[in-house]
Design goal:
- The protein is α+β, with helices and mostly antiparallel strands.
- The chain has helices at residues 22-33, 43-49, 65-72, 128-133, 157-162, 172-178, 182-192, 199-207, 222-238, 242-254, 258-261, and strands at 3-6, 39-41, 58-61, 77-79, 87-91, 99-103, 106-107, 121-122, 142-145, 150-153, 165-166, 196-197.
- The strands form three sheets. An eight-stranded mixed sheet has the order 1-10-9-2-3-6-5-4.
- Helix 7 (182-192) runs antiparallel to helix 10 (242-254).
């Protein structure tokens, strides 16, 4: 069951709608006029609720990839590189780096398994519920209805934001097995507000903190590890928040992640 929180209600005291680029409003109107949903999803919604400026805005729709292409191919330049994952990138005047529009999807592969011709995601049978269930943490499984200004919360992410808790969606062991980098993402998101990590999520990290030496599919590349580490450092620097960086390093030490991240480091 979808729980909708109006942003003007006391549940979420924000008092304004998300400030979106005109190009995203134009995209929304195209989808709406063709009877499709178009929602903001993930980190941008989380940051909006926290009254922070999002860096990237991702969109999700009940339109299938081919339907997205047919809607936009004569209006915008589009990139189909992510189509096998149900994602179409659209380039507009205000967003020259592109906006990702993803169909509701269910993952059929783990981690960065992008090799081979086998099907990577199911978009034909997916719903907003299954789309939310595939996401990493409840705070990132939130949707913003561009038309109504409502937050759609199926996992309890709004309460987690209120309570400063990082909690994996569903079974944390399964979420981490799907992509081992999520272990580090949990630490990064927790560090921003010095949030607690939910007990079940924390227990799953302590039980198995491996990033490598698992399998060709499951191992996290050194490049992705370094990129994730830099994101935490850059965020702390940009926000002049040394507490965030210190807490991040404390979490990495607590969960014995340094040996997994940098095995050559003394």
């Amino acid at each position: 069951m979808i729980i909708k929180f109006k942003i003007f209600e006391n549940r979420i005291d924000i008092g304004k709608k998300m400030n979106l680029p005109n190009d995203i409003i134009n995209l929304y109107n195209i989808f709406k006029s063709n009877y499709f949903d178009l929602l903001v999803v993930g980190g941008a919604v989380r940051d909006f609720i926290k009254n922070q400026n999002p860096h990237d805005i991702d969109l999700v729709t009940n339109a299938k990839p081919n339907e997205i292409i047919n809607l936009l191919k004569n209006k915008y330049k589009i990139d189909l590189q992510g189509k096998q994952f149900g994602v179409v990138r659209v380039f507009t005047k205000e967003t020259p780096l592109g906006i990702e529009i993803a169909s509701y999807r269910t993952d059929l592969v783990r981690g960065r398994d992008n090799k081979g011709i086998h099907k990577k995601v199911d978009t034909e049978n997916a719903t907003i519920e299954s789309d939310a269930e595939r996401r990493d943490f409840a705070q990132n499984a939130l949707y913003y209805d561009i038309g109504s200004g409502e937050i759609i919360d199926l996992i309890g992410g709004v309460d987690d934001i209120r309570n400063d808790v990082i909690r994996a969606v569903g079974d944390p062991t399964v979420r981490f097995a799907e992509d081992r980098l999520r272990l580090l993402r949990a630490c990064r998101f927790a560090s921003r507000s010095q949030s607690k990590i939910d007990k079940k999520t924390e227990d799953a990290i302590k039980k198995d903190n491996r990033l490598r030496n698992i399998s060709d599919i499951d191992d996290v590349s050194q490049e992705r590890i370094v990129e994730e580490f830099i994101k935490s450092v850059d965020w702390s620097s940009e926000h002049k928040n040394t507490k965030s960086l210190n807490y991040y390093l404390e979490l990495l030490e607590k969960y014995e992640m340094f040996d997994e991240m940098f095995p050559e480091l003394d």
